[in-house]
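Example record

The entry below shows one chain as it appears in the dataset: sequence first, then structure tokens.
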Amino acid sequence: MARRYWFTVHWPRQVGEEDWSPYVWLQEDKVDAARGMAKGDYVAVYEYDDGPSELLDGEWRHRQEGDQAVIFHGRVVKTHPRASEDRVFWRYGREYPMTWIPYAKLKITRKPGASRETVNRILGYADRYTLRGFGRPKYSGIREVTREQYWLLIRP
């Protein structure tokens, strides 16, 4: 079975969190973008510079400053490991609910990779693109990449 290669984006960890989430998180209405992802596939994960605050246990939790780079990569060990989660976020002066699915669990290799500028060059985007609205389809936060692109993305 041929392995597939993926690139996805994550918000930074919340203030006080040490570890990254070992999941590929997708909005419930965007899961079709990862159709075909399977055990053994490779995933490179990019971290934005910032992200929305999140309401957890009645308290707003803010994000750390992100790296704007590939922060880790790994292999899919399981798809659809858990049920969807309704979550509430705060950004741009408004509250908005979103339903997220931890679509695939990864066995992570924590190794920094390409910077935003290098990611943009590898994937054919404009130099200053922030990867906001990223994905195929747009705003899905994930896209399949070639084997060659993947190996370039995970190199610092």
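Notes for this example: The first strand starts at residue 5 and ends at 10. Residues 116-123 form the longest helix (8 residues).
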